[in-house]
Amino acid sequence: MENRNKHYALGLTCLFLAIGAFTASHHEMWRDEIQAWLLARDSTSVFNLFANLKYEGHPGLWHLCLMPLSRITHSPVIMQMFHLLITSATVYLFVRYAPFNWFQKLLFCFGYFVLYEYAIVARNYALGLLLITAFCVLFRERYKRFIWISCLLFLLAHTSVHALIVTIAIAGALCCEYVFGSRFSRPLNREIEAIGDKRPLWIGFALIGIGITTAVLQLNPPPDTGFAVAWNFNYDPKRVNNIVKLISHAYLPIPKTTLHFWGSNLLTTYPIFQAIQIPLCYFFMLFSVLLFLKRPTALLIYLIGTLGLLTFFYVKYHGSIRHHGFLFLTFLMCCWIYRDSPAINFGKTTQNDTDPVVDRVLNVGGTVILTLLLICHAIGGVIATRMEHRHIFSYGKLTAEYIKSQGMQDHLIVAEKDSATSTVVGYLPKRQVHYPRGSRLGSFVRWDKARSHSAPSKLVIEEALKLSRQNTQDVLIILNRSLGAERREQHNLTFLVKFTGSTVRDEGFHLYLMPAP
Predict the structure, then answer these.
(1) Segment 304-318, tens digit of pLDDT
(2) 417 and 338, same structural domain?
(3) Residue 117: helix, strand or coil by DSSP?
(4) Total structural domains in the chain?
(5) What is the pTM of this model?
(6) Which DSSP letter does residue 225 get?
(7) pLDDT tens digit string along 108-122?
(8) Residue 417 reports pLDDT greater than 50
(9) Which of 390, 407, 435 is the last residue of a domain?
(10) Residue 433 is part of which domain span?
(11) Which of the residues 40, 211, 236, 395 has an alpha carbon 20 to 30 A from that of 511?
């Protein structure tokens, strides 16, 4: 049985890697992917990297991993390869060790988040998924390997703000289990008593605390930050309902079959689903609480993690599907560790007690619901990969290839929108272009207040004209919209090419050449 499971894990991982590699080869990275690459590539040292990261809103573990890769090659393709290997390792660990049946494991591997969002879109979240999976693998022997557990949680806290919230949930639950769990569970009490030296436990908890603290310190924004600066502490019933709906987006991630499929949800187009969406979300939460009720460790992780994420989405940043996915990951993690969590019986049971029947119903219901959810995830994964093959995700890559094919990579470049054009820069060996938003040279986006003003085409042309006169060189202008014939003639601009109609709406480009005076 052990060998069969190992072979099944290897087989699924190889199949996943083949499909993922083919899909990744058709994926044009967008600005958030390239932003991390540019930060790693163009930071001169680790200290300089962390100085540049202060506006990002995420800790820096992913960027630290990319930094040595960026010294090997300037091509961000190596980041895609590394990212896919991370998710493939997750797939192997899940299939090899997760306490689910073969069909559920198959569905998980080709679900929306695993096959697409955390495999093809190269972001820091895949690293968090891998560390959560590794934590679940070690959870059964957590008190024997607590130092390893604490190291994983230390790293997990530094992958993303959402993984940090999950880390806090896990740390809180483990602390409560250690302090109070032995009073209610004899097996757990015997397991803790069997540990002679308690110092590794205290060192482990201290390490987790340090990891959480240092991650929070990294997330503390500077005074001049210009992105997501508002906090919303006012009670708004409509906003509450919109945040609760995110549970259905995370649990049922089935995108639309359209150009702009990314982040969409097919189910919300049906009036019947709109009518039941909020009650369905509350049902998911209530059923999960009942399912984990007799396993307080799993219950605490689920409650703290889910409510913590929803609270963050409410008070700080609504986020996108890649962020909402941590709601489902929290639920799935609790389903995994459920059997290895200490059980608590509420009161005395008798032969006529209905608790065993209720437990059986909940367990069967949990298996059915989890399978149905994973089927929806698999449908979403198939749709997303199909749309990825059919449509251009971002025109940053093709624009950069055009610039290189025309021998213009060494031209002075002025870009209308820094966040969009940074995607083009990531595919160029060039380290700096001129961004009128912020009036500075750069590659990655610096999310400060200096760039809060817009850059109309008039300002872009004025900046380009100024640079052209200062350097007596042709200037390549990259806009996100077309220029009228009158303005082109006024400044003697030559229209070169346009790339429009990408999945990411604002990553289409219009290129113009301003001749040297």
Answers:
(1) 999 999 999 999 999
(2) no
(3) helix
(4) 2
(5) 0.94
(6) B
(7) 999 999 999 999 999
(8) yes
(9) 390
(10) 396-514
(11) 40
